[in-house]
């Protein structure tokens, strides 16, 4: 039987976690899928592992390309996909057993353009659920009452908790922006949602994002502020395109304080491999933007303790040197 669903998994140097991730796909209760492994120029044993998976299971296909990044790997997978529906799994995450069964059943029975579902952020120390209540929308117009809280529940930021209609992706010529290192997922979702017909969000948790130490190091970067600004600009453009610009101020007011404090925490985290000069430059950039500084202070106000009090007072005065003094006393350079 031809594949009903195409699952695209970009892989770069994934030998440590790849087997568990691939097995979580192959063990799905719904069997009529293809798993497209896109080896993005790996230099470890990834190529051999991918070949072995394909040898053992005919549902596995392997594409190989020079290292171009996850967006390019996903685009290659989209182009090669033969299923009616498309979904994505990252090579260090886990898909829970009935994900394909539940989502394909919904897509088929109700002729949907999109199904999304809840997921968990997992690490060795615990997990946090990203949950939004189940709902169905017969049109994009019916989706808007859910938009802000759906967005705040992290549902817009991922490709991996969704099943898309392949015909719609390919008919619109949608691709991930290969020039972006981060934020390309949400841009793709904006473009897809702008052309959405019927959709449904399921209340089950069917995906686990694993925050391994290496993943966290790669994810935490000094351009987080620029990434956040780019995403918020994308939100504004998306809402304007859809005639819903009145939703933007409310969403930005809810999102910006979290983005600001996350960037601040990154710069003051002693475990991160940044120099004091790099941290100081980031803080000065944060403090120089009145909107970001105001948003930051709204989040710092609720933090207790002597150290947090020190940080709060120094941030209120926009004094990057004082913010970093505790790190300097610890011997950071």
TrEMBL record:
<keyword id="KW-0328">Glycosyltransferase</keyword>
<dbReference type="GO" id="GO:0016757">
    <property type="term" value="F:glycosyltransferase activity"/>
</dbReference>
<feature type="domain" description="Glycosyltransferase 2-like">
    <location>
        <begin position="6"/>
        <end position="143"/>
    </location>
</feature>
<protein>
    <submittedName>
        <fullName>Glycosyltransferase family A protein</fullName>
        <ecNumber>2.4.-.-</ecNumber>
    </submittedName>
</protein>
<dbReference type="InterPro" id="IPR050834">
    <property type="entry name" value="Glycosyltransf_2"/>
</dbReference>
<dbReference type="InterPro" id="IPR029044">
    <property type="entry name" value="Nucleotide-diphossugar_trans"/>
</dbReference>
<dbReference type="InterPro" id="IPR001173">
    <property type="entry name" value="Glyco_trans_2-like"/>
</dbReference>
<keyword id="KW-0808">Transferase</keyword>
<dbReference type="Pfam" id="PF00535">
    <property type="entry name" value="Glycos_transf_2"/>
</dbReference>
């Amino acid at each position: 039987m031809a594949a009903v669903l195409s699952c695209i998994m970009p892989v770069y140097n994934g030998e440590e976690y790849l087997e568990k991730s691939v097995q979580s796909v192959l063990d799905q209760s719904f069997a009529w899928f293809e798993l497209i492994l896109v080896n993005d120029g790996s230099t470890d044993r990834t190529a051999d592992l991918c070949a072995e998976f394909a040898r053992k299971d005919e549902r596995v296909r392997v594409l190989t390309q020079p290292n171009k990044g996850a967006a390019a790997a996903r685009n290659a997978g989209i182009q090669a996909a033969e299923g009616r529906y498309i979904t994505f799994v990252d090579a260090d995450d886990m898909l829970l057993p009935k994900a394909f069964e539940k989502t394909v059943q919904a897509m088929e029975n109700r002729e949907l353009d999109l199904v999304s579902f809840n997921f968990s952020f997992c690490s060795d120390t615990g997990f946090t659920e990203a949950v939004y209540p189940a709902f169905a929308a017969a049109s994009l117009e019916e989706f808007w009452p859910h938009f802000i809280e759906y967005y705040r529940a992290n549902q817009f930021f991922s490709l991996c908790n969704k099943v898309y209609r392949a015909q719609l992706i390919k008919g619109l010529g949608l691709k991930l922006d290969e020039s972006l290192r981060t934020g390309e997922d949400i841009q793709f979702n904006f473009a897809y949602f702008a052309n959405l017909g019927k959709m449904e969000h399921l209340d089950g948790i069917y995906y686990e994002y694993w925050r391994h130490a290496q993943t966290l190091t790669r994810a935490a970067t000094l351009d987080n502020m620029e990434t956040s600004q780019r995403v918020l600009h994308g939100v504004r453009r998306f809402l304007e395109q859809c005639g819903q610009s009145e939703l933007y101020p409310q969403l930005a007011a809810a999102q910006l304080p979290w983005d600001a404090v996350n960037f601040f925490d990154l710069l003051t985290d002693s475990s991160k491999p940044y120099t004091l000069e790099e941290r100081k430059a980031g803080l000065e950039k944060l403090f120089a933007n009145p909107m970001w500084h105001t948003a930051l202070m709204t989040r710092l106000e609720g933090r207790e303790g002597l150290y947090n009090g020190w940080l709060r007072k120094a941030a209120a005065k926009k004094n990057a040197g004082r913010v970093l003094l505790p790190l300097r006393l610890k011997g950071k350079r």
